[in-house]
Design goal:
The chain is built from 16 helices and 14 strands. It is an alpha/beta fold and 434 residues long. The chain folds into 3 domains: 197 residues, NAD(P)-binding Rossmann-like Domain (Rossmann fold, 3-Layer(aba) Sandwich); 86 residues, N-(1-d-carboxylethyl)-l-norvaline Dehydrogenase, domain 2, CATH 1.10.1040.10; 133 residues, Rossmann fold (3-Layer(aba) Sandwich), CATH 3.40.50.720. The longest helix is centred in the middle third of the chain and has 32 residues.
Amino acid sequence: MNVVMIGSGYVGLVSGACFAEFGANVTCIDKDESKINALLNGKIPIYEPGLDSFVAKNIEAGRLGFSTELKEKVGDADLVFIAVGTPTRRGDGHADLQYVYAAAEELAGYLKDYTVIVDKSTVPVGTARQVCRVISSANPDADFDVASNPEFLREGSALDDFMRPDRVVLGVESERAEALLRELYRPLNLIEAPIHVTNLESAELIKYAANAFLATKISFINEMSQLCEKVGADVHSIAKGMGLDGRIGKKFLHAGPGYGGSCFPKDTLALIRIAQEHGSSCRIVESVVEVNAAQKARMVSKIRKALGGSESGKTIAVLGLTFKPETDDMRDSPSLAILPALSDKGATIRAHDPEGMTEAKHLLPENIQYCDSLYDTFENADAVVLMTEWNQYRALDLEKVKSMMKGNVFVDLRNVYEKDTMERKGFEYYCVGR
């Protein structure tokens, strides 16, 4: 089976490598020549554990290739996936679909035999039908179907999510399209992965609904963390007590500085706009977005209070910049809201992140100092702020940290450590919801 993946970013590259692992012949297309040249030379442009070996293995096997040209590959393809970016459009929160429609229009002229065009990008309801109209207008004689196959990849565990998914969602309107997609995903039959077949609109909305619900759980427990601090409760105990209820589940009930990343911020805003366009309310999701923004602001206040009411003239050692561990993704990371607020008020920020510092330098204020060595970050610091729960930060040599610092404030925004332990080590410890 021949597969073309238009877009070699996070979704396109991971999906393409995994389809090649399934046994398909895959070509990943991207207009960025430097990215394609890097991939052809074995250099992976993103950090995702295990992806480099997956790519190398399937290139060597002859199942995975890269190109900047659509023309030479689309005509022979059984399935063409559109996996381009759909960023939030400035000003209104809508998903920007210009790259999706441009890809559809370009590929239309190269179609030969029957082909299934698959939306892999996260797109609003109605996009698949519009893609169909774009292709039909550009090539009235084309024999094709359009399908929706949303991705559910978590950064840091994307390969496992793809190879052992909770479910595969197929939005289709013909038996031919369903048959081709089922054949592509047939290796998952061995692990009895559920394949949920539905219509185009439902498939498109499932992704938004799922992400909005997970974001809701995060904002809910973050609101509970604020209440816990007021009444003397422990948010860890609250989350455990809730999560033991099988109807609720324990995942995504971890208090912290707010959600970020490539999906939740973008998809919650897009879902709100979709609802507004169709005259429907989405008040719960609107509140989720508001609570998340407020949580980030509350973390600034927490750090400021820990420093005695002012961060001016203080040196803060920051551990972690990415929105979560095991990724170099800085998109909408809480650090992008919290650190500039502290820096603007006169704090000196010394930061460390195992994978995110290169990207952070493009997004954070120029006066942020970056430390290649973890323990150099603590030199003469008045306070430590644990921002992202990388494994390297879970087992710090606390005596060494304390000896290197000028002060003793430790603000743990991920609740990695226990208050009693930290206080015995001589720290003035602050956390979230405990």
